[in-house]
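Exercise 3.2. Students should predict the tertiary structure of the chain below and write it as structure tokens, then compare their answer with the key that follows.

Predict this chain's 3D structure.
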Amino acid sequence: MSVWGTGILNGMRISMRNLLRGPITVKYPHEKVELPERSRWAVEMVRDEDGAHKCTACMACERACPDYIIKIDVTTNEDRSKHIDRWGYQIGACMMCGLCVEACPFDAIRMGHDYELARMRPEELDVALLEATPAVGPKRKAAGPSAEASALETGTDPTAGARGAEGGRT
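Answer key:
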């Protein structure tokens, strides 16, 4: 059995609580919303301490994109070094899934926090994040002269040490 007027009193209690809470809106152009760290928006390049990009032009992000909106134009030089002609990205077609960021083995791209992606003209939605820049090669340790090269200089057999460890058997 319900008591008459409990619904009205409950409704007035909720109204008073919301009345005393204060405003929850943001005056957008003048105030910005603080976004969580894990929010995903447009893709941006990651820079190292020197300000250089980390992209090696491995094309993993282009292959991982389900919308096919990342286009990387790369030329390979005679010395097998790569040169990025253009690293293009279409903001308007991106669904902000983050698969390109997960596919990048060198952490060269990340999902940015810029949520103001509206543009006045459609051609501004195609953004070039890198243009006319050499691709950074993967970090390799500087190797000294190989054992075979030093053996040729001294006139010794480079496999002699290995045979000596086995007891002279071949």
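Discussion points: DSSP finds five helices and five strands in the chain. The longest helix spans residues 6-21.
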